[in-house]
Amino acid sequence: MEMTKPFDTLNASKGKRVVIELTKEKRRLIGTLKAFDQHINVVLEETEEYLDGELKSKLGSVFLRGAAILYISPAN
Asked: In terms of pTM, does the model score above 0.85?
């Protein structure tokens, strides 16, 4: 399946683990993508927070504002 639009990629990632880097303090969140909207506000479950590559906390379910997101990538 060829993905030609950003929302195609996000839709393909629903229910899968993703890495999200936040714009401030280079924090990374890894969690399961549950939902997103046209502003790229996202809901993650089973979320873990990493700072400088080190696990800082397990957050569970989180809502992230799209403006705070630098990038979203599939987790390995």
From this structure: yes
